[in-house]
Each structure stands twice: as C-alpha cells, then as structure tokens.
C-alpha cells in the first residue's frame, strides 16, 4: 500500500445535499464520480468503508410537502436515501469497487435487507457497503443511522462529508471572520448549537467512543491533508 491507513474500518456519511453539487435538486454526476474515486483509493489502501447516504437532495421529511404527516414524510425521506444509495453504488462499480447496498426497509428487488453480520462479512471481503433507508424508523436522521451502523460494524471513526472543511463558530459562507475549530468535545457539539449533527447522532458517537471528523467533500485531498481537519472528541 502507498501509505499506512490510520483507520481500518470507517463510516462515511454523505448527505444528500453534498451529492447534489451545485444544483438545487438530485444528484451531480461529477460529485458522484469524485466520491467514488476517493473511496476507491481508500479501499485500495486497505480501508474498509461503510457508507450511509442522506436523502435531502430529493426529500427532507414533512418539510418537503405541505400537509404531510411527520412520520409519512420521514418514510418518504428514507425512500429518497435509497435512490442515492443506488446512484452511488453505480458510480463505485464504474470505478471498479465491489459494492453492496443494504436497506433498513426491505426492497429485495433492488438491494439486500440490512443484516449486520452480512454487512460485516462484506466489509471483510473488501466490499463497500452502502446503507440505505436510514435507520428504518421515522423521527430519526441519516446522521443517527450512520452513528448506529458505525457502532454496529465497529467502525473506528465517523467521517462526515459536508460542504465546508470543518466545524465553524458561525456560517463561513455568510461570515468571513468565522473561526474553524481544530477540536471539539461532544458536549460542545450538543450544547453550542454548532449544527454539526443532531443530538441523537452525536450522543451515539460519544457513547461508543467514535470520533467524528468533518471534511469538505467538494475538495479532493490527500489522506495527509484530510488528517488536519476539525475533530469532535470526548
Ligand atoms: N429519515 C428518517 N429516519 C432515518 C433516516 C432518515 O425518517 O433513520 C428521513 C427524515 O425525514 C430525513 C430524510 O429521511 O429528513 C432524509 O434524511 P436526512 O435529512 O438525514 O438526509 P441528509 O440531510 O443527510 O441529506
């Protein structure tokens, strides 16, 4: 391998918004390809990669349609994540990475159902496993699904792909003086309203000692550069 990877098993969370690229809706082929190539490189270096995809680029719960009940909106949101999972699977297979999609809501014609031990064995075989349909439950988020699956497959780190290169004290797109944190505690993430992820997700990471690393998915970076990003620790 060209370098010794720091982590053997990682959870990569890719939000729907990140997959959307510069558009207002759907999936951007350039972003898909770029994510696929970086994942391929990490796989070749021997890293086992589990991915949870969001769905906000297609549907974001009841907010997306007036009059929709919360639970129903959430189910639609979970179905949206499966569309992203299939698109990402296709992109990964194009660059030669063997991939399985597992969904938390059964749809056997398009993907495997989620089976923990099977997911682990895919990872051991060098396959990338993409988890679709979140946790399968309304009232949760895909960040929580990612934290849950990370704990289930014994991932050592939660890599959160966003549109910025870390956690800032205010929105860096609006405030040019926004300051980036090098390191944060889980408590700070929960109580300082930093909008990193929801409390359920961060609590799961904290309880399972899974560090969270926030990075910019729009920038292609080397693993060494990636190492300098904001972290959330205990
Ligand atoms: N969702 C859900 N349960 C889950 C995961 C997701 O109900 O376990 C729904 C929820 O409505 C959410 C939508 O699916 O708004 C899309 O997921 P999310 O907003 O987390 O996607 P992202 O922001 O990462 O694109």
TrEMBL record:
The keyword ATP-binding applies. Its EC number is 2.7.4.22. Keywords: ATP-binding, Kinase, Nucleotide-binding, Pyrimidine biosynthesis, Transferase. It comes from Dunaliella salina (Green alga). Signal peptide: none annotated. The keyword Kinase applies. Residues 8-216 form the Aspartate/glutamate/uridylate kinase domain. Belongs to the UMP kinase family. Pathway: Pyrimidine metabolism; CTP biosynthesis via de novo pathway; UDP from UMP (UMPK route): step 1/1. It comes from the Eukaryota. GO terms for molecular function: kinase activity. This is UMP kinase.
